[in-house]
UniProtKB/TrEMBL annotation:
Alphabetical list of CDD domains matching this protein: ABC_MJ0796_LolCDE_FtsE (cd03255)
Domain ABC transporter: 4-229
Entry keyword set: ATP-binding, Cell inner membrane, Cell membrane, Membrane, Nucleotide-binding, Translocase, Transport
Name of protein: Putative ABC transport system ATP-binding protein
Keyword Membrane: yes
GO CC terms: membrane protein complex; plasma membrane
Organism the protein comes from: Ancylobacter rudongensis
Keyword Cell membrane annotated: yes
GO molecular function, one term: ATP binding
PROSITE patterns listed in its UniProt record: ABC_TRANSPORTER_1 (PS00211), ABC_TRANSPORTER_2 (PS50893)
Domain of life: Bacteria
Matching SUPFAM superfamilies: P-loop containing nucleoside triphosphate hydrolases (SSF52540)
UniProt record similarity statement: Belongs to the ABC transporter superfamily. Macrolide exporter (TC 3.A.1.122) family.
């Protein structure tokens, strides 16, 4: 079974201005080892898709399956899905959102969700992850002492702490310069290729198109087969 499978996913919002069809019947499979880019204009439903696929919100209709198991649907209990969310999905957002009074390695260790791991072991694991992202020398620094690119790589390390089979990233390079952005994208590329993770990245950076195994274009809440050139 695909790591992620979404079936006819729809999300409507009732607003003062009427019904907004943020997502309108999206179906998509992402396999292990696949790096998928999601492109599309602002307001086309990309973030909504990621929130639903990440079990952070429920769809109005449709289903989300992880590794062949149906986990989310219109009436799903999101609190009950917290365990699945934390152990099996790694999230990266535009802002690193690190805890300011914890060091880089402590931030990464916090992402670890293995019940019987000691704090000391968690730090060893965190250092190893940071080293793999060329951040060994920053492990004991507070976030404020790190550059934007370094902070984002710490956020990536935190997302990888549990070795989740699925990584979801929403504009992870938007706040970074070209070199740093490329570096973060290369990390996703490597995680997909070497660890076999399914990685879904929302971006509108056309420079990253050649890194993806597959590109999906969104328009008006739907997957668009014949996209405009962005
Ligand atoms: P994108 O990520 O592609 O910019 P979004 O998924 O954020 O698009 O939004 C898709 C549409 O849904 C937009 O029209 C947006 O205004 C609307 N939308 C998203 N979230 C909400 C919400 N909580 N309430 C009302 N409308 C929303
Ligand atoms: P927590 O257990 O910390 O409450 P959740 O299991 O609810 O986290 O969510 C998983 C991850 O998604 C966490 O890293 C959390 O910071 C992030 N997250 C949750 N909701 C949102 C949101 N609305 N916007 C951005 N990030 C979010």
């Amino acid at each position: 079974a695909p790591v992620l499978s979404v079936r006819s996913l729809t999300r409507h919002y009732a607003t003062g201005a009427g019904l907004v069809r943020a997502l309108d019947g999206v179906s998509l499979d992402v396999a292990a080892g696949e790096l998928v880019g999601i492109f599309g204009p602002s307001g086309s439903g990309k973030s909504t898709f990621l929130m639903l696929a990440g079990l952070l919100e429920n769809p109005t209709s449709g289903e989300v399956w992880l590794a062949g198991e149906r986990v989310s649907h219109a009436g799903a209990d999101l609190d009950a899905l917290r365990e699945i969310r934390r152990k099996r999905i790694g999230f990266v957002f535009q802002k690193a959102n690190l805890i300011p009074f914890l060091s880089a390695v402590e931030n990464v260790a916090l992402g670890l969700e293995i019940a019987d791991v000691t704090p000391a072991d968690a730090r060893v694991h965190g250092r190893r992850l940071l080293a793999a992202l060329d951040l060994a020398h920053r492990a004991d620094s507070l976030p404020a002492k790190l550059s934007g690119g370094e902070q984002q790589r710490v956020a990536v390390a935190r997302a990888l702490a549990n070795a989740p089979p699925l990584i979801l990233a929403d504009e992870p390079t938007a706040a970074l310069d070209r070199v740093r952005g490329r570096q973060v994208m290369e990390i996703f590329r490597r995680i997909a290729a070497t660890r076999g993770a399914a990685v879904v990245v929302i971006t509108h950076d056309p420079r990253s198109t050649n890194l993806f195994d597959r590109i999906v274009h969104f328009e008006d809440g739907r997957v668009c087969e014949r996209p405009q050139i962005y």
